[in-house]
Amino acid sequence: MPAPSSPFLNGVPELLVLRLLRDREMYGYEIVQAIRDASGEAIGFAEGVIYPLLHALERDGALTARRQTINGRSRVYYAVSADGLGRLEALAAQWRNLNTAIGAILEAPAHARPA
């Protein structure tokens, strides 16, 4: 099931990209596949979402990039910078707070219903 198209999910691609790149450097298509695989195919962002995000994060200093040619194919590998780690922690904290708030509403006892 592909990711729903919703403004509610703004910031999710950035959070997931930064989290994946925290562990190791990757190139764009590899990131797309890693998100799909790690989410059990519940989340699937198109390359048209990921590549502009990677460029913006690099421009903002959250990522570093290096070009490498492997088997005649040039790829740009991305890694999280120190600024990116700080950004990841802030986004993760926001997501955890939101998750807790939504969980509290979902688990709340039923409210009185009008007669």
What brief labels describe this structure?
115 residues; 4 helices; disordered N terminus; WH_DNA-bd_sf; PadR family transcriptional regulator; Metal_resp_DNA-bind_regulator
Considering DSSP H and I runs of 4 or more, what fraction of the residues is helical?
40-55%
The CATH architecture comes to Orthogonal Bundle
CA-based shape: elongated
CATH class: Mainly Alpha
- The CATH topology is what? Arc Repressor Mutant, subunit A
Number of helices: 4
| Poorly predicted runs of 5 or more residues | 1-6
- Order of strands, widest sheet: 1-3-2
What's the CATH H-level superfamily name?
Winged helix-like DNA-binding domain superfamily/Winged helix DNA-binding domain
Order of helices and strands: HEHHEEH
How do the helices and strands line up, and which of them pair or pack?
Layout: H1 12-23, E1 26-27, H2 28-38, H3 47-59, E2 63-70, E3 73-80, H4 82-107
Antiparallel strand pairs: 1-3, 2-3
Helix pairs in contact: 1-4, 2-3
Pfam families: PadR (PF03551)
InterPro entries: Metal_resp_DNA-bind_regulator (IPR052509), Tscrpt_reg_PadR_N (IPR005149), WH-like_DNA-bd_sf (IPR036388), WH_DNA-bd_sf (IPR036390)
Protein name: PadR family transcriptional regulator
